[in-house]
Amino acid sequence: MGLADRGPQGPNVAILGATGAVGRQMMQCLQERHFPLGELRLLASARSAGQQMCWNGRMITIQEATPESFEGIDLVLGAAENDVAERLLPHAVKAGAVVVDNSSAYRLDPEVPLVVPEVNPEDVAWNTGIIANPNCSTIIALVCLAPLDRAAGLNRVVCSTYQAASGAGMPGIEQLETENAAIVEGRKVPAPRVFPYQLAYNLIPQIGGFDAAGYTSEEMKMQNEGRKILHNDGLAVNCTCVRVPVARSHSESITVELDSPLTPDEARVVLAAAPGVRVVDDPSCREYPMPLDTSEQDLVYVGRIREDISAPEGTNGLTFWCCGDQIRKGAATNAVQIAELLL
Ligand SMILES: NC(=O)c1ccc[n+]([C@@H]2O[C@H](COP(=O)([O-])OP(=O)(O)OC[C@H]3O[C@@H](n4cnc5c(N)ncnc54)[C@H](OP(=O)(O)O)[C@@H]3O)[C@@H](O)[C@H]2O)c1
């Protein structure tokens, strides 16, 4: 399903979860990218219904999301949790809309394409109403991994992520800000409400629940979603996900094994030519990606590119570091880019 010929001004668009971190960013991305649209409908929970949000110079009243909310809507951008997505998005499809969903509810459904526009835009074509946006860390990694895969064949990935508080949405940002304020003001740090422990001045090596092998659900997304996006069921992935007291932008340390040799200089050339990537890699001038520099923009920055000196002979190991704004490229921008492919 596509969006061509859906109204003279463009499709009517609804954002499910418009008041959240991703939903707000989607509103901004639609405006920045001049996405052609007729109506913009803002949907959230009953808690937000009746409040107003400003978009493109007009005030829009937020509506409570119900199964009937999608009447007359052509495109739904989903920015709510899995349970809300599962309960409401099938009604959107039934009403004739195409859905681009940010939750993980549909990502591994064989009927649902999982798309990073820089990597597998062609998969949009076989959607039957829902297209899934991948996990934020997975998108950021794959924008760098896919060009290396095309150049030299990717067969193994070892990754550690350093994930910002805003990856847990508005409540995650609030917890970190509340803790920071309490510490600065010399007050007792309140009990954590979102993360399992205090995040300020801390690192938490758990995002999601653990499986029997000791991996978290967030860690397995890198393997399972990476395989689906790259069409490589045999890709070996070992991921450790860590929550860090950074407001915005996820960072990742990645080591890869490649089929063919690729020197760090060759990798820099490949990555510099890749869509969505900026190489920032001059250690002699202390130039490397950092989350403060990659926030509020859409490129994934990559640097610290070097040979994996521990790689066994013949495994062509490379190591690098990348950072990207996970609310933008890891969620909202990626979703709007997918919608642009549908136009
Ligand atoms: N944050 C990230 O970096 C990121 C990155 C990639 C993917 N995602 C995914 O994107 C989705 C949204 O995440 P977020 O970070 O934006 O979360 P968030 O800030 O907590 O926002 C959640 C949104 O869902 C709405 N909502 C809650 N219950 C609802 C209900 N019963 N009916 C309708 N809407 C309801 C909320 O509305 P109210 O304000 O009315 O409660 C709010 O608009 C999640 O699936 C998340 O996993 C997030």
Automatic annotation (TrEMBL):
The keyword Thylakoid does not apply. It comes from the Bacteria. SMART domains: Semialdhyde_dh. Substrate binds at residues 163, 243. One of its GO terms (molecular function) is aspartate-semialdehyde dehydrogenase activity. NADP(+) binds at residues 19-22, 47-48, 166-167, 326. It is an enzyme of class 1 (oxidoreductase). Signal peptide: none annotated. InterPro entries: Asp-semialdehyde_DH_CS, Asp_semialdehyde_DH, Asp_semialdehyde_DH_beta, NAD(P)-bd_dom_sf, Semialdehyde_DH_NAD-bd, Semialdhyde_DH_dimer_dom. It catalyses: L-aspartate 4-semialdehyde + phosphate + NADP(+) = 4-phospho-L-aspartate + NADPH + H(+). The active site is at 136 (acyl-thioester intermediate), 250 (proton acceptor). Its EC number is 1.2.1.11. Pathway: Amino-acid biosynthesis; L-methionine biosynthesis via de novo pathway; L-homoserine from L-aspartate: step 2/3; Amino-acid biosynthesis; L-lysine biosynthesis via DAP pathway; (S)-tetrahydrodipicolinate from L-aspartate: step 2/4; Amino-acid biosynthesis; L-threonine biosynthesis; L-threonine from L-aspartate: step 2/5. Belongs to the aspartate-semialdehyde dehydrogenase family. Catalyzes the NADPH-dependent formation of L-aspartate-semialdehyde (L-ASA) by the reductive dephosphorylation of L-aspartyl-4-phosphate. Homodimer. This is Aspartate-semialdehyde dehydrogenase. It comes from Kribbibacterium absianum. The lineage of its organism: Bacteria, Bacillati, Actinomycetota, Coriobacteriia, Coriobacteriales.
